[in-house]
Amino acid sequence: MPIPLTAPEILDRVYLEIRAKLLEVAASFDRLDRAEGAVADDPRLARVRQALAVLSADAPDRAEQVQLLFSLPYDADWRTKFQIKGGGGNGAVR
After folding, report:
1. What is the mean pLDDT of each run of 10 residues along the chain (94 residues)?
2. Which domain holds residue 51?
3. Which of 4, 27, 79, 88 has the greatest number of beta carbons closer than 10 A?
């Protein structure tokens, strides 16, 4: 059984990747600021800002919280809406 990595070891492995992704997000915001038009009232941008707030908080399950921000609520009737028949447990669309 492998030994779990320590927090410093994980940071050593992922620091440059995290840094690159944050720079990409910052560049996207810069492009939005320089572009014509306004998106301040766009709900997508509001969700992105909420996600950034979640990331900056010191709380567990940040990935789950961010995923939920960008997800639709569960709809028990989704099969009907997407015209999917059957309910077999193998995940196959019939």
Report:
1. 93 98 97 95 96 95 96 91 75 51
2. 7-72
3. 79
